[in-house]
Fold each of these.
Amino acid sequence: MNFELKPLSLVEAASEKCDVLLVLLTDSYKPAKDGFSAFVARTIKDGDTLTKAGKLLPLYKHSMAQATRVVLVGVGDGSPKQVRSGVLAALASVKSDKLKRLVLAFGNASTAASIKAAVASVADASYSFNTTKSKKEDNPLRDVLVAVSNATEVQASFERAVGIVEGVNLTKEWANRPANYATPTLLAKAAQAIATKNSKITCQVLGPKEVAKLGMGAFMAVAQGSDEPLRFIVLQYSGAAKSQTPTVLVGKGITFDSGGISIKPAAEMDEMKFDMCGAASVLGVFRTLATLKPAINVVGLIPSCENLLNGRAVKPGDVVTSMSGQTIEILNTDAEGRLVLCDALTYAERFKPRAVIDIATLTGACVVALGALRSGLFSPDEALANALIVAGDEAQDLCWRMPLDEEYAEGLKTSFADVANVAGRSGGAISAAKYLQRFTAKYPWAHLDIAGTAWKSGASKGATGRPVGLLVEYLLASRVVPQGSK
Ligand code: BES
Ligand code: MN
Ligand code: ZN
């Protein structure tokens, strides 16, 4: 899909030839002095609540517009949330295989936030997954023209939003693939493909031998229950001088989580193909970095394997030694995410990072706590936590800070090792974070539990592409801007 931003007034947008013209109207719509704008103003006046977010007025072959169909779309106060609900409602109402060219016109000036929301929601509404279907229903929507009167003002936000869409779509693609189309080996190939196409990105892939040499005993313990070999993926984006310390992103890459010997119940177990959404979001961020080319350095680490159960599978009670040297009693083989992550977190030390953020579909408890709206954010570092919250707001990819009091680590104590991999049922998202925290003493660290936000269940089952938006906004905001330049 091709996004374009043009400086056009509403009447100019109406003269663009296209299949559908969406006109976004806020409560404070002020008409310009032309016939089409006056018509819109009259319609609002007569149809009292037309500008309420999500309200639509469809028009067919209107005499004052070149579009086949025009939809007047209420976007309320013009906030990102209301723009999103308006655009999603409008696109649901015109869903057709004939929608090839879309013009999205702002009735009045747009803002950085409303432009971003508009671009993200058009992309969301027109996404479809085809990889495993015999008949590829290629998405017909080719061109999206965003028409605003104040294009120069919002150009940078527009470009950032389009860059994020590319990453989000790549994340959705890999996250949605079933486990037999997204093995650790295939994920590594996807990472290598991103690197091959971009001179600023390199990719190194470690296999079982190299991982054993590093002493990643926790990661290996999870992988040993499957015939599919593990992969440890190291991506590096170098957009700035070597002297600039990198941010490290660590993505949980369990391509299928059966629970292992502590096996999960059958219902909805298919959804555990999404247990590599953290990894997919790291791939998505690198895809976006390749497009936006910001002057920063970023490292992506993906420990990837299956959590299955064969004759060699790790058993409850087994004690393993992590790369950090800490021994771990595996009381529940279904708490495998933290096992693969802890070794990746130790590996991250070698980059002397300015910050390490891990992203993981880590706990069902986080879904209970926060549902599908906000990802769980855990960090002992105030500045890092606040920066991530701001980035989430900026991207409309929300998170919520959770506590890390020492008392929450109490249940991880055991007589048989330095730490157990599970505590009691209560506060499960927090004790998981407390476990991870033990491996992060050497750098500022944050953990995003995306178990509730990375995919949707039910009728609209599918990956959301989150938290690519949040991460990209965070990374771009962390750029060191030289004094005196913009
Ligand atoms: N991948 C799951 C977490 C999960 C479960 C995400 C359901 C989304 C929906 C993780 O590996 C897991 O199984 N966690 C266990 C931890 C428990 C054994 C302490 C859980 O949440 O039940
Ligand atoms: Mn599990
Ligand atoms: Zn898991």
Note: The domain at 2-149 is CATH 3.40.220.10 (Leucine Aminopeptidase, subunit E; domain 1).
Amino acid sequence: MKNFLYIRDIPLRDLKKIISAARKRKKKREGLSLLDPDKDNILKGKFLIQMFEKSSLRTRLSFYLAIKQLGGGTLTLRSDELHLSKKGESIGDTAKIISSFSDIFMFRTDSDKKMLEFKKNLKIPIINGLSPSSHPTQVLSDIFTIEEIKKKNISKLNISWIGDGKNNVVSSLIEASVKFSFKLNIGSPKNHQPGKKILDWLKKNKKNISIYKDPKKAIKNADVVFTDKVISMNDKVNKIKKIVEFKSYKVTKKLISYAKKDVIFLHCLPRGTEVSDEVFLSKNSKVWQQAKNRVDVQKSIILYCLGKLR
Ligand code: CP
Ligand code: NVA
């Protein structure tokens, strides 16, 4: 049994295997309808519980389709409908029940501590469907999308992140950059560059990461440009002040012109004001393909956790 919580904790060969298995399984599905199970029906009879403490559209839908296509079933819970936490039931007891009623658990939470407490108490695998410090299923799926479009190993590409340097998506991207050895340039305002904890972790690892205040420097020669909302779901900041600080980090046609001509633009979604419509709707933008690919990669992640990845 394996968990999928933080990219930094998963061996590179496993991450690569998840991606290559997703590629093969996606190809084999050509011609099938969304709810048709894959021909091998590999998870027939298996049950996934997904639980959300925060909003979700893509993660919820992609895990639903993923387990269905593998032949299993799923139920989505909202933690505020349970007896959990303020209403009195402990994480330990909740985790015991979830373990005896299902085969695998996907959790989106507002606390990494809570995620780890679930992990400690569960007898089934747990997948991080977004926490304050990590969005690992998103980033692994984005690597899948980049390699699918560029038809190259990600280690041969220049990746740029423009925007909040401290949020969950960029933190997982930093971990992925170390694991997959790709060049990562981050462009963020001074107060919003990656924090001490992740920089300390970087010091201990071989790194190919540069951090800039000037977004033009960070985007120069990029093969792939990422951004994300300035205000994340768990942000407890002065929102107006933060939006003003990020004004010159908006990915506009002018800013992206510093990247390579065939650059691809990615965004995990939902979007805010950090990208212009012109870029978001341009032919370089691959955001819809990026979102859809999450189904294929979630399938592989579920199989990995259940020890069924071939
Ligand atoms: N990208 C992403 O995780 O989207 P949702 O918040 O809609 O699940
Ligand atoms: N950084 C964003 C990602 C949403 C999928 C957030 O946490 O709100």
Note: The chain has two domains: 7-135+294-305, 136-290.
